[in-house]
Amino acid sequence: YHHDDGTLEKVTIGGDTITDATNTLIFNSSSTGIYQFNGNGVIVGVIDGVFDVYHPDFRTAAGITRVLFLWDQNLIPQGTEVSPPIAPALPGFTPNGGTTYGVEYSQADITTELNNFNPPITPAYQTVRHAPGPPPNNANTGHGTFVTGCAAGNGLGQASTFVGAAPGANIIFVSNRGTPGIALFADNTFVWDAFSYIFARAAVLGQPCVINMSASDNQGPHDGTTLGEQFLDGLLLTPGRAITLSAGNSNGTASHATGNVAAGGTTNLIINYALPPAPQTHRSDDIEIWYDGHDR
Predict the structure, then answer these.
(1) How confident is the model at residue 139 (pLDDT cuts 50, 70, 90)?
(2) Rounded to 5 degrees, what angle do the CA atoms 230, 173, 179 make?
(3) For the chain, which terminal residue's Cβ has fewer other Cβ atoms within 10 angstroms, N or C?
(4) Degrees (nearest 5) of the Cα angle 114, 120, 121?
(5) pTM more than 0.90
């Protein structure tokens, strides 16, 4: 997290620091084979919550930001700010409903933000209004920075001690609308727009692109048949594209159960609820039952 006084605070998510996670992903330096991959000429797209453009891991050694575009779907344009262009101006990107929204920041905008930083006269996040919340960092204020660091951090924040998987890649980040767990995230049209936008930007730049989204839920049939999953499959028909998704945080939570019910029979399934962590007082929840279509 970047403070207005110019100091940096190490991001901590779920008890782990960003450096703990990226230390496990030093593929580029640990490889001893003839092929050394660091992401040069590739775009890493990230769809997440909040991202800190000030973090040194997302700049080159010359101080140039590696973030080509940042689209905050939640902001409303102010002053000279604009929403992303859509097709035909940006081929391949037609958001749900056909109308653009949010605020798009270009590499030039982010460069202006970084160059103008001069506290207390010019505090941070004046040109680029997409900003992390105040410390302490948590899943709401630091997750996007944490994930992007694992994927594409170059380690300049700590003398290259901790490096992400693709430290040479360029970055496109989307802060998406929608809350995982409230509705089927795979069918969230804001998520569809985010994937389409990143791939469209990468296509215009003529670069291959891999997009990561570390957010989801436990809903749906888990067989690739939801409209959202089919939509993403369609995007991947274009060569030079890949999508990676998080494995989830539900290990040990007993979120799933499976079994057989004899024809005409019944079975009992006990649902246990746990209190949410403070300061939350309640959570949304849902129960889904899926069965083979032949068993009707």
Answers:
(1) low
(2) 60
(3) C
(4) 75
(5) no
- Residue 276's contacts (CB-CB under 8 Å, 6 or more residues apart) are 282, 283
| pLDDT in the model for residue 289 | 86
Amino acid at 244: T
Q: CA 208 to CA 210: how far, in whole Å?
A: 7
Provide mean pLDDT across the span 46-67.
94
Q: How many CB atoms lie within 10 A of CB 80?
A: 7
| Helices (runs of H) and strands (runs of E) counted in the chain | 6, 8
Query: What is residue 281's three-state secondary structure?
Result: coil
**Confidence band for 262, pLDDT divided at 50, 70 and 90:** confident
Q: What is the DSSP letter of 2?
A: B
The tokens describing 141, both together, are 């204020």
Higher pLDDT pick, 152 / 224: 152
265: Cβ–Cβ under 8 A, 6 or more apart, which residues?
none
Paired strand residues for 209: 43, 241
